[in-house]
Write a structure and sequence with these properties.
By secondary structure, the protein is an alpha/beta fold. The protein has nine helices and 14 strands.
Length: 286
């Protein structure tokens, strides 16, 4: 049996279908219900999964349980333990998807990258594209594996950053902070969907709504992504991606990588931390 080789952070349903028999392939359902309505969302009236998928629940389970902030990164030790339970190995070729299209799956992709695992990619179009191609589905998802894996986390510094790092970056021209929330939320003219948050944005940050890089559940081609990014930042800048809670920031981080940017980080706490009514971080409204 052959092994799957992942050479890009984004794979097509055709690629996944052709590699279903690979001995090292692991498919993870990283679906999370959107906080705000998403146009390409599959309503999921009946639970449907890609056949053979295992559940990667970063919203409630594979996250830091010692904070009030939503779905923050867990410790490397916890991540290792949970991935081994899912049967993931050091050489596993991991494909993550969600039922919206491309919404929460990039968060799982970036988590694996932060934990030092390079063989991971997002399924372009997610479950809707898989179903549209009439490929094998199931009403069941695996919560664990028969055989424990040998996965080991190797935490890489700088892929997820904290509020102190972001605060310093607001005054450093070598950095650009890109906010994936909608234009209305960024400018403080639309209410935040989560309670207890102020309106506005991080001083000096730029607005890049994730809907500008994903159309009908598919990520824009690299040339179009390059055009989007080049209007805001240059290749030499350190890019910090933020959003409401560190999920859709990973969509724009994925888009940035596909566009050829290499200095990428995600602000884990994002607006749930920065914009909290209890915080003293500066907020701009305009």
């Amino acid at each position: 049996m052959s092994k799957a080789m992942i050479t890009s952070s984004l794979v097509s349903v055709q690629w996944l279908a052709e590699n279903l028999g690979a001995e090292n392939l692991v498919i993870l359902d990283a679906s999370m219900k959107p906080v705000t309505p998403v146009q390409s969302s599959d309503p999921q009236e009946e639970p449907t999964y890609i056949k053979g998928a295992r559940r990667f629940d970063f919203d409630q389970h594979i996250c830091d349980h010692n904070t009030t902030l939503p779905h923050m990164m867990p410790s490397p030790e916890f991540f290792t333990h949970e991935m081994q339970k899912l049967g993931i190995n050091k050489d596993s070729a991991i494909v993550v998807y969600d039922y919206v299209g491309v919404y929460s799956s990039p968060r799982a992709w970036w988590m694996f990258r932060a934990m030092g695992h390079e063989l991971v990619a997002v399924l372009d179009g997610g479950l809707p594209a898989w179903k549209k191609a009439d490929l094998p589905c199931s009403s069941q998802v695996e919560l664990s594996a028969d055989k424990r894996g040998d996965f080991e986390s190797q935490l890489l510094n700088g892929l997820f950053v904290d509020s102190a790092h972001v605060l310093e970056a607001t005054a450093d021209p070598r950095y650009a902070i890109l906010d994936a929330r909608s234009e209305g939320r960024f400018h403080g003219v639309e209410p935040e969907p989560r309670a207890g948050l102020r309106s506005g944005h991080i001083p000096g940050s730029l607005n890049l709504p994730f809907a500008q890089v994903v159309v009908d559940g598919l990520v824009l081609p690299p040339t179009e992504l390059d055009s989007v990014f080049s209007k805001l930042v240059d290749k030499e800048q350190n890019l910090i991606f933020s959003c409401g809670s560190g999920v859709t920031a990973c969509i724009t981080a994925l888009a940035g990588e596909l566009a050829g940017y290499s200095k990428i980080a995600v602000y884990d706490g994002s607006w749930s931390e920065w914009g909290a009514e209890s915080s003293n971080f500066p907020v701009v409204k305009n």
